[in-house]
TrEMBL record:
GO terms for molecular function: electron transfer activity; heme binding; metal ion binding. It comes from the Bacteria. This is Mono/diheme cytochrome c family protein. The keyword Amino-acid biosynthesis does not apply. PANTHER family: BLL4482 PROTEIN, BLL4482 PROTEIN-RELATED. It comes from Prosthecobacter vanneervenii. Pfam families: Cytochrom_C.
Length: 219
């Protein structure tokens, strides 16, 4: 009887020890799992913080657009366009001057005073309208004339008419050449201007005199 009781007590003790050992081991496993989980969590937080994308920096304010350069003032006058065929007209004029006018007015435009007055710097040439000069070339000129305040009287100058020998373009060319050479600064003459005066004076055959031609306005 006592042996049976002793055996039973041992069994109970072993069972209790096993249960305790099992419980202790389970507790140790739980504690170990908790500690491992905490350690992993602590390591994950910095990594997550490192992996998190940085917040975008605030965009710098855009630089103000440069002020627009002001357009050219509307009142600025445009450059005058060159006359159509101006170079051809000058070439024609130079050719006519070299064949028809040069003997009297000379290559320099200084003429042969007192018979042939100068064209260079002449106040008859440097005027706004070429109407007097067109008439003089068309119908000729005779008699005394005052140029730049200097009278040419003896012998009286005489210029033969060229209206029958030269057409409108040739007369416009030679007058344009004279008005832009020899120090002269007058504007060009067009064939249309010559044509208009030729038509207006078609009944005239006499040469012009100073008294008559001074009545023609040039400004």
């Amino acid at each position: 009887m006592s042996r049976k009781s002793s055996s039973s007590d041992r069994l109970v003790t072993l069972a209790t020890y096993g249960i305790g050992t099992a419980m202790g081991g389970g507790l140790l496993l739980m504690v170990g799992a908790f500690m491992i989980g905490s350690f992993v969590a602590l390591r994950a937080k910095p990594a997550a913080a490192a992996e998190a994308p940085a917040a975008p920096a605030a965009a710098a304010p855009a630089a103000p657009a440069p002020a627009a350069t002001p357009a050219a003032a509307a009142t600025t006058p445009a450059s005058p366009a060159p006359a159509a065929g101006g170079a051809d007209l000058l070439a024609t004029g130079q050719r006519i001057y070299s064949t028809v006018c040069i003997a009297c007015h000379q290559p320099t435009g200084q003429g042969l005073p007192p018979m042939f007055p100068p064209l260079a710097g002449s106040d008859w040439v440097n005027v706004n309208k070429p109407d007097r000069m067109i008439r003089m070339v068309l119908h000729g000129f005779t008699g005394p004339i005052t140029i730049n305040g200097k009278p040419f009287t003896s012998p009286a100058p005489m210029m033969p008419p060229q209206g029958g020998a030269l057409n409108d373009e040739q007369i416009a060319g030679v007058l344009t050449y004279v008005r832009s050479n020899f120090g002269n600064k007058a504007g060009p003459v067009t064939p249309e201007q010559v044509k208009t005066i030729r038509e207006a004076e078609k009944a005239r055959s006499a040469m012009w005199t100073e008294a008559e031609i001074l009545k023609i306005p040039v400004e």
